[in-house]
Amino acid sequence: MSVFVITIDGPSGSGKGTLAGKLARHYGYHFLDSGALYRLLGLAAYQADLLQEPLNLPALEHLAASLDIQFIVQDNQGTQILLNGQDVTDQIRTEEVGSMASKVAVIPSLREALFKRQRDFARAPGLVADGRDMGTVVFPDAPAKIYLTASAEARAGRRVKQLQDMGVDAKIDAILADLQTRDKRDMERTVAPLKPAHDALVIDSSVLTIDQVLKTLIDYIDSRYQTTVNSP
Ligand SMILES: Nc1ncnc2c1ncn2[C@@H]1O[C@H](COP(=O)(O)OP(=O)(O)O)[C@@H](O)[C@H]1O
Ligand SMILES: Nc1ccn([C@H]2C[C@H](O)[C@@H](COP(=O)(O)OP(=O)(O)O)O2)c(=O)n1
Predict the structure, then answer these.
(1) Beta bridge partners of 87
(2) Buried b / exposed e across 97-109, counting CB within 10 Å, b at 16+?
(3) Do the beta carbons of residue 129 and residue 140 sit within 8 Å?
(4) Among all ligands shown, which has an atom nearest to the Cα of 216?
(5) For the chain, is the Cβ count within 10 Å smaller at the N or the C terminus?
(6) 34 pocket-lining for ligand 2 (C-beta < 6 Å)
(7) What sign does the dihedral 10-214-96-175 (CA atoms) show?
(8) What confidence score (pLDDT) does residue 77 get?
(9) Binding-site positions for ATP
(10) What whole-number distance in Å separates Cα of residue 134 and Cα of residue 139?
(11) For the CA of 149, the nearest ligand
């Protein structure tokens, strides 16, 4: 049975994770949150005191190759994430760990070390993969590619609301500044920079609801599926 891969790339707060999760449930597909892998590597590097300049590249490469991580899918409660047996599900979602992830993500050999782990998520009947380079580098042959974006202000506003709903005090100015720093680093790095694949559907969700985006994506994916299975 062939594996139908749907990729969703885009900047922080564009709605990738939310939409990827909904699409995976809609189609009964597996789900790869590639950002979680970078967040785990960033956190592990921080815990091992390996984020100090000058970087100890061999030690970071060893860490990336031997990263002990587990994704435990739980009924209706999302996915529990373990690093070296410790539950880090909530910890890796902080903006601090997002920044650590973005720092390790500029290093080509570390991206290479995570490449095969990501490809291994592609199992029948299909996969929804979200991140920064899913459509450009990790799954370049995916039949359905989406690039989700939104204005920096809309994305920062969503993050503030998300954090406030979790009981965390968040200031829009600080969140907006962090997000713009991370966007710049992710878009300007030389290896696998954040950009739409040439064959991606680009959607700006600044003034769209989650349900409106979901409907657009399902219509698009269904049309791509027809094209893919009917083509010779
Ligand atoms: N179109 C949208 N309109 C309003 N809020 C949204 C929209 N898309 C996502 N969100 C909300 O924005 C926050 C960030 O979304 P998330 O899926 O985590 O983004 P990403 O994975 O791209 O960083 C979440 O609280 C989510 O519910
Ligand atoms: N495929 C990926 C996924 C994430 N990254 C890096 C760059 C991002 O700033 C960090 C965190 O990614 P993540 O998708 O978890 O972040 P957001 O939820 O979009 O804020 O990891 C990457 O370089 N390539």
Answers:
(1) 82
(2) bbbbbbbbbbbee
(3) no
(4) 1
(5) C
(6) yes
(7) positive
(8) 66
(9) 10-18
(10) 5
(11) 1
pLDDT score of 232 more than 60: no
d(CA 126, CA 190): 30
Beta bridge partner(s), residue 165: none
Question: What's the rounded mean pLDDT across residues 86-104?
Answer: 93
Burial of 49 (0-12, 13-18, 19+ CB in 10 A): exposed
pLDDT on residue 230: 61
CA torsion sign, 129 to 135 to 140 to 143?
positive
Nearest-angstrom CA–CA distance, 180 and 11: 10
Q: Domain segments of the chain: what residues?
A: 4-230
* Number of the ligand 2 atom closest to the C-alpha atom of 118: 1
The CATH class, in words, for 4-230 is alpha beta
Report which residue type is found at 62. Answer: H
101 lines ligand 2 (CB under 6 A): yes
Say if ligand 1 is within 6 A of residue 11 CB. Answer: no
Neighbouring CB atoms inside 10 A of 71's CB total: 16
Query: Is the Cβ atom of 46 under 6 angstroms away from ligand 2?
Result: no
| ipTM of model over 0.95 | yes
Q: Which alpha helices (DSSP H) does 168-209 contain, by range?
A: 172-188
Rounded CA-CA distance 8/31 in Å is: 11
Report d(CA 128, CA 126) in Å as an integer: 7
